[in-house]
Hints:
This protein is an alpha/beta fold and 326 residues long. The chain is 45% helix and 11% strand. A hairpin with a 5-residue loop joins strand 3 (49-50) and strand 4. The model is unreliable at 204-214 and 320-326 (pLDDT under 50).
Amino acid sequence: MKHLVAILVLDGLVPFDLGTPTQIFGTARDETGERKYKTLVCSPNGSPVETASGFKVLPDHGLELLDRADTVVVSGIHAGDPVERGTLDPMVTKALRSAHDKGKRIMSICTGAFVLAAAGLLDERPATTHWWWAEKFREFFPQVKLDADVLFVDDGDVLTSAGVGAGIDLCLHVVRTDFGSEVANRAARRSVVPPWRDGGQAQYIERPLPRPADATLAATRSWAAERLDAPLSLQDLAVHANMSVRTFTRRFREETGVSPARWLLQRRVDHARALLESTELPVEVVARRSGLGTAAGLRQHLQNTIGVAPSAYRRTFRVVPEGSGG
Length: 326
């Protein structure tokens, strides 16, 4: 049977935060095209829900759906008791806590974390929410270990994400955990979004975008991305862009928000992860092909980036063909 995802919506619903799990989980398919999830939407008593965008959503199910689900997703809200007073309808609290007690995986997108916190499911646990709401969240729920600087937090049976696009990252992370990188990458391609952004990556807070006319380094970034296994210095990159090192460094940071060295390291770690997921190459070869030098260097950078060793990462995300015995 397909993995059942129940999406809980409440008054003040952010429509994007409803569309995110239905889109990502709905497009997660294996190589034969078979869907891996079934998504259903519920509300208290199955009643119509007022969105924050001037229209209503009519769910097909009531809170009893949470008992049937494998995963429960709480969509974000921009109005209502959880974000205005830090409280929650006792009926919703009981349903969420019952689902959690029965071993259901619980997720929230954006300000859906207020709902989980009001239900007591985040007490003394790490969590995140949209950075704009962080101060109010801390005021209402000081017992929660809030980290508003990350895209999402996976605390095992309870997962939370920051705003808007970070919900996509969390859903793809869950697909990858459940069914492997190929299914997650396929869902990302169908949705035309990046297949992976590390949960510990910082939220994009008040960072101005460069004017289109200023975005001149795309060709150099593409050139560098094709040569990750080569020793690329800052001088090499600046020469390719036909700029001085000082000008290149300034323009690069304006366009990407990070230094050239940081960007290059991120691309190399991403390439190493892709090789670990999709090949059986020895760790030493993966390190060399991704430009991270040695197996020790790969281990250090992977540990610093996502907190796991290469072997553990490969065991978690490597897709083993059925019948292979692996």
